[in-house]
Design a protein that fits this description.
- By secondary structure, this protein is mainly α.
- It has one domain (7-106).
- The chain has 2 helices and no strands.
- It has helices at 6-86, 90-106.
- It is rod-shaped and about 150 Å long.
Length: 107
């Protein structure tokens, strides 16, 4: 059997702890990168959410305006229809014109 000297043992443990330290730093760096990425993703998510919220609010305003315009158009068309029903037709006016002409000719 070969005997392990104190210097070899110390070198082994030194390499072992150095390797663990390197791995720990690598893991910390990966964790830091992941945290930074999550922060960026969160910020972009919040910005996108605010943008979408603002767009939805604007769309709601446009829809409300369109609804109000539609109601006004219906009211105007209804009034025009009522007014058109109260107007005399061309044939009725011609009959009245003939009667007026006959009445004028008699006097």
């Amino acid at each position: 059997m070969t005997e392990v000297t104190g210097g070899e043992q110390q070198g082994y443990w030194s390499n072992f702890f150095s390797d663990i330290s390197t791995r720990l730093r690598d893991l910390e760096d990966k964790q830091r990168l992941l945290r930074d990425r999550m922060i960026l993703i969160s910020e972009s998510f919040v910005k996108e959410r605010e943008k979408n919220f603002n767009e939805i609010q604007e769309m709601k305003k446009v829809i409300e305006n369109l609804k109000n315009e539609n109601i006004r158009m219906k009211e105007i068309l209804s009034r025009l229809n009522e007014h058109a029903n109260n107007l005399a037709r061309k044939e009725e006016l011609m009959i009245l014109q003939r009667q007026f002409n006959l009445f004028r000719e008699e006097y």
